[in-house]
Amino acid sequence: MLLTPHILLGAAIGSKIANPAAVFALSFVSHYFLDALPHYDYDNSAAKNKKIDKKTLILLIKMAIDICFGAGLALTFVWDSPLRTNAIVGMLSALLPDALLFLHWQHPNSKFLKIFGVPHRACHYLKNLSPAWLDFSTEIIVVLATLSFLFYAV
């Protein structure tokens, strides 16, 4: 899944729950639930390389734009919230599973990182099981649902 839906859902969780530990845990787990849905995904094959080549750099730029867009959108809705800090915790913890997966690819022999890599792969939606329109539709539905939750429940 693109990173924006993860960020928005993490922000939505954080904007409604006062306990930062609960926000962290729920947002972290929400990542796996979203990844189980049909969705579009980046071509992450370049991220598995240990060297930075042109393909890897392009992937990193796309992901940086995605993170900036998602974070900017989320912060627009939660900036004046008394739970803004929790929303930021939610945003970051919702991205953490992908960061740990990337580290697992870079260090495949790490037993600690394998703890996160294996379940990520296990719950991740298998590509090519649905048409592309469904993958993008799911992303759009998640974004619209979280935005409406952020907008109307503030």
Task: Describe it.
By secondary structure, the protein is mainly alpha-helical. It has one domain. It has 6 helices and no strands. The longest helix has 25 residues. The protein is globular.
The Cα radius of gyration reads: 16 Å
**Annotation, overall tally of beta strands:** 0
Q: What value does the average pLDDT take?
A: 86
Number of helices: 6
Structural class: mainly alpha
What is the beta-strand fraction? under 5%
- Assign a percent range to the helix content: over 70%
Low-confidence stretches: none
Rough outline: globular
Query: What profile does the largest beta sheet have?
Result: none
Order of helices and strands: HHHHHH
When the domains are counted, the total is 1
- The termini sit apart by 26 Å
Q: TL;DR of this structure?
A:
The chain is mainly α and 154 residues long. It is 71% helix and 0% strand. The longest helix is centred in the middle third of the chain and has 25 residues, at 54-78.
Descriptive tags:
globular, mainly alpha, 154 residues, 71% helix, 6 helices
Write the layout of secondary structure elements.
Blueprint: H1 3-14, H2 20-35, H3 54-78, H4 84-106, H5 111-123, H6 132-152
Helix pairs in contact: 1-2, 1-3, 1-4, 1-6, 2-4, 3-4, 4-5
